[in-house]
Design a protein that fits this description.
Elements: H1 8-29, H2 31-56, H3 62-79
Helix pairs in contact: 2-3
Length: 80
């Protein structure tokens, strides 16, 4: 009789390797899109407490608080 072999582990490792290579390639190709999105998300987490403070404590409307914070960031970035 011929012995049956189980290729499940080999197939799993091959698919894992191909997935990692594919994800790495996509990240490399999409870097010009991914980087601005990540920076925007990080800036959102950075300025949200300031906007909440202006909204809750100083009773400014949300949109006005956002405009003030964004203009303040632009002034700070261009003055440096």
């Amino acid at each position: 009789m011929l012995k049956q072999t189980n290729f499940a582990r080999a197939i799993f490792l091959l698919l894992l390797f191909l997935s990692i290579v594919t994800i790495g390639t996509l990240c490399k190709l999409m870097a010009s899109v991914i980087v601005p999105i990540v920076v925007a998300l990080l800036l959102t987490f950075l300025i949200e407490p300031v906007i909440k403070f202006l909204n809750k404590k100083l009773h400014l409307p949300w949109i006005l608080a956002e405009i003030i914070v964004i203009l303040g960031m632009i002034i700070i970035l261009y003055s440096v």
